[in-house]
């Protein structure tokens, strides 16, 4: 059985939600598979969002598994507490640490799945070996920092490369993509072999965010059906 025979996962990003109404905005995406929470520190990326106290509060108001995407420096220090708090998956950036394996080990020891993320310009080859120590790979398809940017299709070659290793049984990571995913771009990502699709503006700018999640899932499933 390959990753393609599973239902695609949709992870709405609350970066595009109204931060003054986060509990309601989380409820508005009921039926989502993961809730994607972008943590930015104004150092690793030129933007500042929210941190552990807000994540702890959000965990109390939702049952949707939380997917924390840490766009921060020094993940060795800051990532494990998100796992301890109860996040389902904690992803940090390969570019932010010299020892990604150690950070993954600490995240897993604290009870969460561990994710590695790469920016659009970061090659995946140097990380293929250590992906054995991760549960998820988050391929950024925009420069991290802001929602509403244009999808960069060139990153799909990284998805294809990792997909091949997953399908041959050499790796077991969930392949996730983040940035510019919408009705027009999700099919190409699904065909390349993405398992989990983050969508911010495409979900929260829709009149009915829960229906937007369902529609994205249908589109991804249709595009990847022939791959299974
Ligand atoms: C960007 C964030 C994304 C962002 C995606 O740095 O990591 O999760 O919310 O937003 P859209 O889907 O609008 O590109
Ligand atoms: Zn993100």
From TrEMBL:
Binding site for substrate: 13, 69, 145-148, 178-180, 200-201
Family: Belongs to the ribulose-phosphate 3-epimerase family.
Broad class of enzyme this protein falls into: isomerase
GO MF entry, a single one: metal ion binding
Function recorded in the entry: Catalyzes the reversible epimerization of D-ribulose 5-phosphate to D-xylulose 5-phosphate.
Gene3D superfamilies, per the entry: Aldolase class I
Cofactor(s) this protein cannot do without: Co(2+); Mn(2+); Fe(2+); a divalent metal cation
InterPro entries named in the record: Aldolase_TIM (IPR013785), Ribul_P_3_epim (IPR026019), Ribul_P_3_epim-like (IPR000056), RibuloseP-bd_barrel (IPR011060)
TM ranges: none
Active site as annotated: 38, 178
Protein name: Ribulose-phosphate 3-epimerase
Superkingdom assignment: Bacteria
Note accompanying the cofactor annotation: Binds 1 divalent metal cation per subunit.
Keyword Cell division included in the entry's annotation: no
Record Pfam families: Ribul_P_3_epim
Keyword Metal-binding recorded: yes
Alphabetical UniProt keywords: Carbohydrate metabolism, Cobalt, Isomerase, Manganese, Metal-binding, Zinc
The organism's taxonomic lineage, starting at the top: Bacteria, Bacillati, Actinomycetota, Actinomycetes, Mycobacteriales
Residues that, per the record, bind a divalent metal cation: 36, 38, 69, 178
GO biological process assignments: pentose catabolic process; pentose-phosphate shunt
GO cellular component, one term: cytoplasm
Recorded catalytic activity of this chain's protein: D-ribulose 5-phosphate = D-xylulose 5-phosphate
Organism: Mycolicibacterium grossiae
E.C. code: 5.1.3.1
Pathway: Carbohydrate degradation
């Amino acid at each position: 059985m390959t990753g393609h025979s599973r239902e695609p996962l949709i992870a709405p990003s609350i970066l595009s939600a109204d931060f003054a109404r986060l509990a309601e905005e989380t409820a508005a995406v009921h039926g989502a598979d993961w809730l994607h929470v972008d943590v930015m520190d104004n150092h690793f990326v030129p933007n500042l969002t929210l941190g552990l106290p807000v994540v702890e509060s959000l965990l109390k108001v939702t049952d949707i598994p939380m997917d924390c995407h840490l766009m921060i420096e020094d993940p060795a220090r800051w990532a494990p507490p998100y796992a301890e708090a109860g996040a389902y998956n904690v992803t940090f950036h390969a570019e932010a640490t010299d020892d990604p394996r150690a950070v993954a080990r600490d995240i897993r020891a604290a009870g969460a799945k561990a994710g590695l993320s790469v920016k659009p310009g970061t090659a995946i080859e140097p990380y293929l070996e250590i992906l054995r120590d991760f549960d998820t790979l988050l391929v950024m398809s925009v420069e991290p920092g802001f929602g509403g940017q244009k999808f960069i299709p060139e990153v799909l070659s990284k998805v294809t490369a990792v997909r091949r290793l997953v399908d041959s049984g050499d790796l077991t990571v969930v392949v996730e993509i983040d940035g510019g995913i919408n009705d027009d771009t999700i099919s190409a990502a699904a065909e390349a072999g993405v398992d989990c699709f983050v969508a911010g503006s495409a979900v929260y700018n829709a009149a009915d965010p829960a229906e937007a999640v369902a529609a994205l899932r249908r589109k991804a499933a249709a595009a990847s059906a022939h791959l299974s």
